[in-house]
Amino acid sequence: QVQLVESGGGLVQPGGSLRLSCAASVRSFSMYTMGWYRQAPGKQRELVATITSGGTTYYANSVKGRFTISRDNAKITVYLQMNSLKPEDTAVYYCNTRVGVADYWGQGTQVTVSS
Question: Distance between CA 81 and CA 102 in Å, rounded?
């Protein structure tokens, strides 16, 4: 069974930084694309960033140049480094992976950007 556990969220001032972590319990973690999504109040969940097994990354335009996704296959963990945070980045951030035809999600971690 696949489990994803996010951590690292919190309250930060505009312009600040946070680093989210997602610890995964999945066999052959290194084989799978990992992603970060976010959902703000009253909005649909949206894709933030992904990283493939080969390390190829994708970013939503809204976070490009500010966020960095990375993975440590030895630690079975994926990270999201978030810099220059803006109030509009406020959301619950979710870790995701797809194994076969099934999508797996973590419980989410709250990020609040406010002065």
Answer: 26
